[in-house]
Design goal:
Layout lengths: L1 E8 L5 E8 L7 E6 L9 H12 L2 E6 L16 H18 L5 E5 L1 H10 L7 E5 L16 H7 L1 E6 L2 E6 H8 L3 H6 L4 E6 L9 H9 L4 E5 L10 H15 L17 E4 L8 E5 L2 E5 L14 H24 L2 E15 L12 E14 L2 H11 L3 H7 L11
Helix pairs in contact: 1-8, 2-3
Amino acid sequence: MSLSKVTFTNTEGQTLSGRLELPADQHPHNFVLFAHCFTCNKNLGAVRNISRELTSKGFAVLRFDFTGLGESEGDFADTNFSGNVEDLVAAADFLAKEYQAPSLLVGHSLGGAASIFAAAEIDSIKAVATIGAPSNPKHVKHLLKSNLQEIETNGKAIVNLSGRDFTIKKQFLDDLETKSLPEVAKNLGKAVLVMHSPQDTTVGIQNAEEIYHAAKHPKSFVTLDGADHLLMEKTDSIYVGKVIAGWSSRYVYIPETPQLKSHHHVVASLGNDEGYTTQMKVGNHYMVADEPESVGGKDFGPTPYELVSAGLSACTAMTIKMYVARKGWDLQNIEVHTSYDKKHMIDCENCEDPSAKIDTFEREIKLEGDLDEKQVARILQIADKCPVHKTLHSETQVITKLVD
């Protein structure tokens, strides 16, 4: 995952702060907008976990603070639900201008309701996923019930929410009265995923039922059995991220990765417009190789020499494991650390000559278990008998021919 700080302006000219997460091993195939819950911010643990699951599947995710929250400018007391929807539209415009228009909207709690409203205004959105969302924005009033009279009488009140004080003005409540989520969901015309926990004591499960019935197909419901409203358990938010990634792949365009075929053990394919990012089929497994950014690559995968080093490390560990298993020795874990460089030959007579340098793999082995000195010494000898190690030390040949 690659994380960068981004800023953009809302319709009032205020600067909103966000984090753009990109996949670590590829260009993103789709961009996602994430709307956080009421009075939360972009750094809530659940928001980060869901975002990371999406980036691991090739999505880019923009999570940002609504006006007046977190690092974003503005006074929360002057905001309302409509402003949150406008912030999402502004974020979508920013992505479309600077990166790529978003195709997926994800919203948590009141952010889920805002996502449905925003999706109706953002043409590029193909699918919306809500998590613990209220079926009517007015639902948030129950969080303010002890202060409603004061807000109505004085025009505002200081409300304590999750241990923090917020000033809520009457215009916030008045704005909620104008919003009908079922009506918007009914005419949305985009795929909707409703995720909710039956044990949610903040926003009851009946809200999910109302959103689901209001929306038209394609629509889906996934229960988050056992989860709390804020998804405080890490496993819950990770699960949510995985489900959204899988579900949305049916509604957003994800280019197919060409399935490389070869009668050889390994095939590498590199297109003219891909820099050094090389698609590979290694045995029955697909992976990517690349070069560091310092030499013009994108660092989406290991370098060729890192792959060779990886082969040496893996082969060493496997060889030791096989030998120790036959001996019945107590070896609990093996770590093999390998790096590659070109270094001067030991006792070279002409060290200034570049040809005096040779390919050098440095290998360090960590053994965990109840082993005596003789056993450790023998294991180190066995390490040098690893097949890849022996190949690197032997005379080899590469036979090349052109194929159609």
